[in-house]
Amino acid sequence: MTLFNQPAARALETLLDRERALIISGDIQKLARLLPEKERLLERVKTMGDSAGRLEHIQGKADRNQSLLDAVACGIKSVQSRLEAMREGQKVLRTYTQKGESQSISRKTTKFERRA
Question: In Å, how far from its chain's centre is CA 58?
Answer without folding.
Answer: 19
